[in-house]
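Structure request: Transmembrane protein, Sinorhizobium kostiense.
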Amino acid sequence: MKTALPVLCTLLLGACTSTASVGYSPYLEPIPGSITYGGQPRTKLTKAPIGSTFSHQFRDPFGRQVHETYMIAPDRSLLLVRRRYRDLFGFDDD
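Returned structure:
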């Protein structure tokens, strides 16, 4: 019984963390129109402070307006941190 309790706790904790992360990814994948789609840009943002953010807007192939937020990483690459969609009628996804 003493060995079964830690095993049971481990299984329950593992189930909680695995079900909470289904459908969620901390890293967004770039889509066509994203600045980082097809890889990082050739030029680096050398004057922008590390950790600063900026936004980028474009339309996806379905006609929705996409608002993306990028952050400048310590190696001066761009990290996509947020994406919001606005449909054809102007309603947000939030």
